[in-house]
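Obj.: predict assembly geometry.
Materials: sequence records (below).
Method: joint structure prediction, all chains together.
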Amino acid sequence: MDATSLVGRLADIGIALTSIRSLDRLLEHIVVQACDFASCDGGTVYIREGECLRLAVWRNAALARRSGRQAEVVREGRLLPISSRWIAGYVASEGQVLNLPDVYCLPPGSPFAFDPNFDRENDYHTRSMLCVPMNDATGDNVGALQLVNAMDRAGRVVAFPAAIEPLMRSLASQAAVAIRNAQLDEKLKAAYFDTILRLSVAAEYRDTDTSRHVRRVSLYAEAIALECGMTAEQAELVRFAAPMHDIGKLGVPDAILLKPGALTPAERQVMQEHTRIGYDILKDSDAEVIRASAEVALAHHERWDGRGYPSGLSGDAIPSLGRIVALADAFDCISSRRVYKEPKSVDESVGIIRSDSGSHFDPAGVEAFLRARGRIEAIHESLADDDGPVSPPTGGR
Amino acid sequence: MDATSLVGRLADIGIALTSIRSLDRLLEHIVVQACDFASCDGGTVYIREGECLRLAVWRNAALARRSGRQAEVVREGRLLPISSRWIAGYVASEGQVLNLPDVYCLPPGSPFAFDPNFDRENDYHTRSMLCVPMNDATGDNVGALQLVNAMDRAGRVVAFPAAIEPLMRSLASQAAVAIRNAQLDEKLKAAYFDTILRLSVAAEYRDTDTSRHVRRVSLYAEAIALECGMTAEQAELVRFAAPMHDIGKLGVPDAILLKPGALTPAERQVMQEHTRIGYDILKDSDAEVIRASAEVALAHHERWDGRGYPSGLSGDAIPSLGRIVALADAFDCISSRRVYKEPKSVDESVGIIRSDSGSHFDPAGVEAFLRARGRIEAIHESLADDDGPVSPPTGGR
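Observations (raw structure tokens):
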């Protein structure tokens, strides 16, 4: 392949990289494309975190072949302090490319050493190595890309040709920009979700529910959504939309919302208005998440048999997000302590959900709930109310 | 410049483009880089919106030179239906590059025609044109990039060389990916801001304030922040953080929040707790926006002279975001109708703010407020309460 078409291929890789907005998928793609582009055996992506490099992902075709598998990308997570004493540490701190024909025979006086642990642990022999800094458009270092054992056409390990260095530098820069974008994206999404959670909790400030209730319902709903066959993206929408289900309680007067005893029928009717109030607050948004949350707010107290509120819808006429959040909310209510009741065990709570299939709940939703039980139990445990207060503090004034 | 270094330059442009996350700046950068890369007189970026192309930006060096100015990027906004009957419309719908040596002398049988209006209106003569589809990594069309009047070294208009077509196609793809990312980013940010507004309004559901109050305070605060010398990014943070200033009112009982008459000193003390409650709801977030909003919630009733609440801070000890939102909130309160008072005119309201400089308000903040007066008046008018209810509906139950 001549230089121009190599560079053209590089541009295509750059376009593909910058289209990926999930950090995990992006890192996989970087290591696969870089190994392919440089015709080498293995590669590692290090991501900078302050004064450390995180060994994010690696891939080695020879090791995979040996165990009869396709070369998979392995997720790692070790955090290594940046210093000139090891290869990627040197590259990240100095911003220099290192092209080493034989890592067991480093140039005399090299400040860095090769760590042979990977070779020992995996019965592998690293020889040639090309390590390139990933710098973004402003020159900030985002990490390092390390490639090992370049192969010639006959499959012999050779040194990386010098001509590939500027191309790999360019690929690494494109990777850096793509990583930075994906990181900013994840940060923005995390901030968004944090806001939704806090404000959903705030809406329950006058109620007895806790911030953990909001979080649990959100995660239960996502787990059920995935088992209903939704894509990861659709299930994420459910996770973002679910916390706001009770936002309409803001419109219920203290005298009813905080009444210690049973409600009169008239009071109960006012209380049930929280579904329509929530819908009014959230309806008509340009944002898909908020439109979905409006649907959830309105429909999460409908029942499969038509005996719910506010509209008495039944069966498939109830929006699917409403059916999913109804399950998540009910399970959390049953399995948590309330001022007026003790929590039921997970087994008992699951039993109640199961026995209400087809009456209160969508039978297909209950099936999905049962398939998601492992995940749901893990959420129940990790976000248990008894662990003490979490920030932001709640539980009324 | 040889082919390889041209392609290398292209990769650098791609890296620069994908680093820009603001759509406006990105479009400017695309048209400038493309004209520079192709050594031509002018360029236009069309962005696809459904079945139309929006003429987003254009730039023409010769026209600028003639009026003695630097070539500026001109923002447009006209929406043109996509069809094969005009050049960019053809390119966007067919996905083909058009390289036309002379637009006044099109190949016989061309389905498209050249629109000479721009030439007539600007006393310009378009001759050569290169129009390239902007397709993203999946091949979806995002728009078209149109370049006019390629120049040789002697400054004569020539045809675009065929060799530049694949390079411009690649540049256009990189531009397409960058535009798509910036659009997704703006969509996510808009959804985030919409959520903050709705939930801030929801928090005021029990109060008499309107959704417009929340929006106005947010925009006033951004305008003041800009005049305080903050960057656009910092001012955007203020805009996102400001709406939540009264979220703590959720923790104030109906009996006090909704009391028609004057509050007793004890009741006033409970009412003033809304600052600390808001802080409790919002504090300790990983997200910068929420940390900023916690600061605003806590500090927006402090006074420059130390006679505010909850902490009685004075002068620079009051966080700057708190001082800015205090101004924005006070101006909106004075200039709006409340159940207990008529609105004051803008002139009167500004006078009150000015006379409270150094007592209630930070004098430097008041100066910034006065400089921002034009913008503030425009916001006041465009979001007036008297225009009737806006979605989401508010104003108590």
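Conclusions so far: Strands of chain A lie at 40-49, 52-60, 74-75, 79-81, 98-100, 129-135, 141-151, 157-158.
To do: check interface contacts against the pulldown list.
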